[in-house]
Specification:
The chain has 451 residues and is of the alpha/beta class. The protein contains 20 helices and six strands.
């Protein structure tokens, strides 16, 4: 379980007790000054200053930070909310409020606080730190939920899982070991693509991974359909997607997946075959087929949104997948380097860019003491040094000029789906409609090894 403050380095910066208007100017971004670490000793001085300047957002937020550093979270949140009303773009407010909620293990409220700020101010100073805290909270919540689910497995087994809630297991990668990180990457993009559809609610990849780790399945290396059904019951997901990618050193690649329901029944597998360079285009077709097997036809608008999601640059996607693996094992510096490589290969790969922003500052965020909150609120992203392992380097060298088809080629290649239901966009998640259609069932047995 991740703690809200997994490390402390209160001695890494001297605590300053002198307060002046320059602090407020620094917090509001004036003159480009960088604020110093806050100290609880500043509270009396800041309170005196606020008597004469009650609407000074910079002073209010530093006061909130000082209260937070002193452990007075109730007061800190109240003051931070007042400061946020005056300076909604300042990252210090959500960092104070969010971390106070983290201390009380109010994960959902903390996540809502971070998400709201990022939705409106993702490009402001301090946003990478907010995003890093969001990732840490997601992991903490996932770990706690996994433990709670296993502790209450008997009760969960008696409850009917929602058939429209879907979880994607890590894929088995067979063949060229260079592509082993795609186990996480393909699971993430399948989750992301399916989440764009009207019908389904997707379980976060982090939540699936936390449960698998808690069940010690990562060490056993195999998940059969009965175990997959058990995972679904624990996640309260009516359907689990599991499959494999066979990528030989030479020859045709194969991507396949099936849907397992909580009874253990498995749908007829969807199978896509093609060149390795077309693997990500094959994934898009797999999404269409999986949706059909779950009784849903994509509209034209949904199909185009799915096609535009992610990247079609295999070198970029492999680097991104390596970043996910590094991030899952807690090596955020290596993760940042891989995400940076993914962005270098495809500057338009937004998922990689987002991961880069958070993973770059996560090590410092994890080690930060409460007194460091004012400096972290002004954090910006610096480009990390690239880490390109020899296997990845060879893949980049061999595929950089000819990775995959263009988006327009994909639209003409994938089958046109009849319009079904309300069209959706990525900026407005659609509501969940009622169930239509049925799930095709078979007796196919599927098992795979986890990385």
């Amino acid at each position: 379980m991740l703690d809200a403050y997994p490390g402390s380095r209160s001695s890494r910066r001297p605590l300053r007790t002198v307060v002046s208007v320059s602090f407020a100017l620094a917090l509001s971004g004036c003159a480009g000054a960088r604020p110093v670490a806050v100290s609880p000793n500043e509270i009396p001085t800041l309170e005196q200053q606020l008597v004469g300047e009650p609407q000074n957002a910079g002073v209010l937020l530093r006061y909130a930070a000082a209260l937070f550093a002193s452990g007075q979270c109730d007061s800190a949140m109240s003051v931070a909310r007042s400061g946020a009303n005056l300076a909604p773009h300042d990252a210090l407010a959500p960092l104070v409020i969010g971390q106070c909620l983290e201390r009380d293990r109010e994960w959902e409220q903390a996540l809502d606080t971070y998400r709201a700020f990022l939705a409106a101010h993702a490009d402001r100073r301090g946003a990478p730190t907010v995003r890093a805290r969001q990732v840490l909270v997601q992991r903490a919540r996932a770990n706690e939920r996994a433990q709670v689910a296993l502790a209450h497995e008997t009760e969960l087994a008696q409850q009917a899982a929602d058939p429209q809630t879907v979880a994607v297991l890590p894929l088995d990668i067979v063949g060229d070991s260079t592509y082993q990180p795609l186990s996480r990457g393909l699971a993430q993009i399948l989750t992301s693509d399916l989440a764009l559809l009207q019908r389904f609610r997707l379980v976060e990849r982090l939540q699936v991974g936390a449960l698998i780790d808690e069940m010690a399945l990562a060490e056993t290396g195999a998940v059969d359909r009965a175990t997959a059904a058990r995972v679904g019951r624990l996640l309260q997901a009516g359907r689990m997607v599991q499959g494999l990618a066979a990528i030989p050193p030479e020859g045709e690649a194969r991507l396949e997946a099936s849907v397992v329901v909580t009874t253990g029944e498995v749908s007829t597998p969807s199978v896509q075959r093609g060149r390795v360079r077309d693997l990500l285009r094959m994934e898009k077709q797999l999404v269409v087929d999986l949706a059909q097997r779950m009784g849903y036809l994509l509209s034209e608008a949904e199909l185009r949104v799915v096609l535009e999601n992610g990247t079609q640059n295999l070198a970029a996607f492999l680097a991104y997948s390596r970043g996910l693996v590094a991030e899952d094992r807690g090596d955020y510096r290596a993760a940042a380097a891989y995400f940076a490589e993914a962005v270098r290969q495809d500057p338009g790969f937004e998922a990689a860019r987002t991961e880069l922003q958070s993973s770059t500052v996560t090590p410092e965020v994890m080690q930060a003491a409460p007194t460091d909150i004012t400096t972290l609120a002004t954090e910006t992203v610096s480009q990390p040094a690239l880490i390109v392992e020899p296997p990845l380097g060879s893949v980049v060298a061999s595929t950089i000029g000819d990775i995959a088809a263009t988006q327009s080629e994909q639209v003409s290649t994938l089958p046109t789906q009849p319009v079904s239901g309300t069209q959706t966009t990525t900026s407005q998640p659609p509501p969940t409609p009622t169930v239509v259609g049925t799930t095709l069932m078979g007796t196919v047995r599927i098992f795979f090894r986890l990385p």
